[in-house]
Amino acid sequence: MDIATGAATQEIIIPDLLMGFAGWFTSTAIGPKQWHFPLYIPNGTQIWARGAGKRLSTAYNVVIYVYGGDALPPFRVGRKVTTYGMGTVPFGTTIVPGASAAEGAWTQITASTSENHFAFYPSFQAGTDTTLNTLAYFVDIGTGAATELEIGQSFVYHMTADERMDGPWNTFPAFADVPSGTRLVMRCSNSGVNDVGNYNGVIHAVS
Hints:
By secondary structure, the chain is mostly beta strands. The chain has one domain. The protein has strands at 2-5, 11-14, 47-50, 81-84, 93-95, 107-110, 117-126, 135-143, 149-160, 164-169, 174-178, 184-190, 199-206. Strand 8 (135-143) and strand 9 (149-160) form a beta hairpin. The two termini are 19 Å apart. The mean pLDDT is 90.
């Protein structure tokens, strides 16, 4: 899913959110997927969403919360999000979780960032498999090579056997000043035995 602003010509400001298997707020279903990005959007701006998926036809709900009211926010904000690790839509980079709380290996999401960034969020979803178990997944993001530095720890996703996934929890991005040209990595552990299917992820970075 992409989020864009503008009228006649939309500008994508948040590309390639992995929203596969997302649930919704009901009394029986698992919750939605969510992201909170520190971006500045001026008053009067039109906001758009669009999606792409493997199924021929899928309707889904999108809710966008915009916080503020002050032209000068009392915290750091950016102008756009860059997504690293996107493969052929709607899939990201293949991630192999470690089973039973064991950390999986760090997987490279990009060898070199294209801009300076200060806030980071993962997207994570199941791949093409449809025999999924009820598990919790714990996603870490990091920087560097050989000895990776963890900058975001244990973004939690829940998957159910009826093919629904929510997350991430926590809902706050990881803040770190990361210069252009930096390697980004991701790893994952889960709460039980790995499914037979694969998983994939991307990293969203604010600049």
